[in-house]
Amino acid sequence: MPIQQNLPHAPATVRNRIPIRSVLDPYLKRAQCVLEIASGTGEHIAWLAPQYPNIKWHPSDICPNSLPTINAYNQNNDNVLPALELNTQSSEWPISERFDLITCINMTHISDFKSTLCLFKNSVQYIKPNGVLYFYGPFNKANQFTSPGNEAFHMSLKQQNPQWGLRDVETIIHSAEESGWALIQHIDMPANNMSLFFQLNP
Description:
The chain has six helices and nine strands, in the order αβαβαββαββαβαββ. By secondary structure, it is of the alpha/beta class. It has a seven-stranded mixed β-sheet with strand order 3-2-1-4-5-9-8, sandwiched between helices. Strands 6-7 form a two-stranded parallel sheet. Helix 4 packs parallel to helix 6.
């Protein structure tokens, strides 16, 4: 998928999309419908959708101004539905189906933590049996930054918004467990990121 010069571009999507696809591939191969939380520019789905044409992709974002960009990037992908305005803190999401996979890429550090807590709580009613909830991003371990770059990134986020910043992976896992999710896979990723996979406890 080429970068479209007339649209906003998120450079991180190009840097991390191949590692993300590599860890998601086993789940995508058996998925029929995927919901992406916090799609941003929509470039992740725009790149993945042609590679998995049997999946029905549902992009979404809290910011209504992002929806036209997401739709523009995906205008040639017949298996991508129009982007939805979705706030994870709402108990009623604007969807009426359940998903094999729900992804949340690079959201937890650029939103208040309540958005992540509510994502764990509210997504329960939108996941299929044996469905998977996937988180990707930079996280701390045991209250420690995993690299000087992550520490500098955290400080820059705090300057933009005091409610933003890197979260501890232990806190993420514990918060998931409180909503009934169990960690099934934890993969350290390039550039000091992590992939976390959750399923509902039986």
